[in-house]
Amino acid sequence: MSKSNSTAMTEFLFEGFSSFGWQYRLTFFVVFLTLYLLTFTGNIIIVTIICLDHHLHTPMYFFLSMLSISENCYTVAIIPRMLSDLLSLHQPISIQGCATQLFFYLTFGINNCFLLMIMGYDRYMAICNPLRYSVIMSKEACIQLVSGSLVIGLGIATVQLTSTWNLSMKRENHTAVSEFVFQGFPSFCEHKLTLFVVFLILYLLTLAGNVIIVTIISIDRHLHTPMYFFLSMLSMSETMYTLVIVPRMLSSLIGLSQPISLAGCATQMFFFITLAINNCFLLTAMGYDRYVAICNPLRYTVIMNKKVCAQLVWGTCSIGLLVAIIQISSVFKLPFCDRKVAHYFCDIRPVMKLSCADTNLHDIINIIVSSLVIVVPMGLVFISYILIISTILKIASAEGRKKAFATCASHLTVVIVHYGCASIAYLKPNSENTRDQDQLISVTYTIFTPLLNPVVYTLRNKEVKDALHRAFGKKPLA
Question: For residue 175, what are the β-bridge partners?
Fold first, then answer.
């Protein structure tokens, strides 16, 4: 650790067009203001005409209206400030103001690039594949393309902004922490070897179980269905999730723990958040799959086609990545005064407790994000199961009801344990539990919950057990 006594910057100054005389700046002001008003007015006219004229309600003009709106937002982020600087002496801009301007400039600048690419794709489909144009460029596809371009812009802007501010912002008179040390399980010093053996066995069982599930689903054509596709994605995500945390935890239990750099801690936290949120929303996608299978069986293969399944998986991963970027940006722009993390991995709350700064705002952001990524998917899953159960109860035969419940039992078991642990860990007040209790909850969702997935789906799922028997050359269970 080293001491930092650098001057804390609170504002910036734009040099602008300072090399030009007053008369030139006045000319620039008139020219730029005229161009800006023409641009702004022209884009508003385009958007208004496209909205009012039903003849223009086509993909091409939809993309054009989105581009016009994006271009207006892009110019609003830059031009008004530039015009005011041309008429006055340099006015300072706060660090927050500069960050906001940079964020919107990057977001809409990148969004414009991808919108132009989408418009090119639209013209390609219209000319090269006209008979299928209306099917391929449906309203849903157009909205997804526009949303995707905006998400890419937001994601890159967040990464760039975080990178720039971490590099350039100095804080005055605080201890610069360059690495963290995990305290691990200090209350269980006498039992560390026992914990190591238990956790290692559970970890190896988790890895082996998830690898077996993915392998069986890949090689057995009877399991090439949406439900097992989502299960294989969940197994891969759970495997990567444990790889991020457990090996380092095991090494610390036998005294091989090494300090972790800020970059290493941020990386671990990034993958932990991404994969944890990905798991939450994958369980939601699996719940939706069971809802369609039971409540709308005749259209199941049409609704849950390969494209939709791939989009759902891609969407879950995108949400995880976006939330992780936001959380990492929030946590690692803080100054840190202590290096001892009261945990066995870089989780958000233990790391924020090491900050010198007031973290109330970050705590609020954390609880809002946690609520959204836990409560929303959990709510969607339980709504799905309310509809599923109401449909199952209408089935006339007892055998039919039993079979329908059996297809959902494994998923529902995993859902209850997964969301239960996540809710206890992240939706409770900060001071509700002791550190030992928090660590016990963390062990549950980092070690036991990932093991639950392969155990439940191999011991309670007849189709998977039959596939395992076929793989080993045995007769499937009757």
Answer: 3
Query: Helix H segments across 254-355?
Result: 262-295, 300-303, 306-331, 348-352
Torsion over CA of 162, 164, 165 and 169, rounded to 10 degrees? 160
The pLDDT, as a whole number, for residue 236 is: 92
Helix ranges, 332-397 (H): 348-352, 360-392
Top pLDDT among 192 and 173 is at: 192
Tokens of 366: 């954390």
Q: What average pLDDT does the structure give for the chain?
A: 81
Structure tokens at 109: 């600048």
Amino acid (1-letter code) at residue 210: N
Cα–Cα dist 317/331, whole Å = 21
Distance CA 81, CA 187 (A): 57
Distance CA 48, CA 52 (A): 6
pLDDT-wise least confident of 197-211, 352-366, 453-467 = 453-467
Q: How many helices (H) and strands (E) does the chain have?
A: 16, 7
CA dist list (Å): 132 to 118, 119, 142, 449: 17, 17, 15, 46
Distance, CA of 404 to CA of 406 (rounded, Å): 5
Domains of the chain: residue spans and CATH: 2-175 (1.20.1070.10), 179-471 (1.20.1070.10)
Instruction: Look at residues 364, 325, 353 and name the one whose alpha carbon lies nearest to residue 162.
Output: 325
